[in-house]
Amino acid sequence: MEKGLIICFTGPSGVGKTFYAKRLIEKYNFILPTIVTTRLKRTDDGENYMYVSEELFLQMLKNGSFVEWDKYLDCYYGTLLNNFNESLTLKNVNGLILDLTPSGCNKIKEIYPLAKIITILPDDSNWLIKRLISRNSQPLEEIERRTAILEEYISEVKKLECDFIYANYSENSWDKTFKEIERIIFKTAK
Is the dihedral of CA 141, 21, 170, 156 positive or negative? Predict the structure, then answer.
């Protein structure tokens, strides 16, 4: 396997990006760099989040602390530059996985042209809304804000130069979707 792969996942909230990132971490020894955000902590957040005030985020931005950053639903998100670079040099790590907005993906692609962008979209927006509600990790107001812009977000990601996967939400489809992700990642790396 080629080392130093950079995989950028994008897609609407709740589509399974974190689930598939965890599978890549476990199976192929990828790593998820630290994400700095101004949003509130959720019950399903992993260890790689750092929560800061907007004032501190903007100061970090001014200091050049991020390899990429964006503002989504009134909250800032950024990938720490030093953590990103350190992660790429770790001997036992095969690559990085980033969970980004379309703008964040474009920023990474400008710096690392060989980065692969994979957009995971719901094959039906209705299951995505039901999943966001059922996982009970966000306040209902935040879910409503995310679903209100869902079609706009999907339109934005479709402008990216990337591979698209249309997922459905059933246990029977998870392995199939993961195999498609593996095929995209490793089609040129093998």
Answer: positive
Give helix then strand counts, H and E, for the chain: 8, 9
| 48-80: pLDDT as tens digits | 889 999 999 999 999 999 999 999 888 999 999
Q: What is the pLDDT of residues 103-128, one digit of tens each?
A: 999 999 999 999 999 998 887 777 77
Longest alpha-carbon distance in the chain:
46
The alpha carbon of 54 is separated from its chain's Cα centroid by a whole number of angstroms, namely 21
- Provide the whole-model pTM: 0.83
Beta strand 95-99 pairing with 5-10: parallel
- Exposure string of 73-85, with b = 16+ CB inside 10 Å and e = fewer, is eeebbbbbbebbe
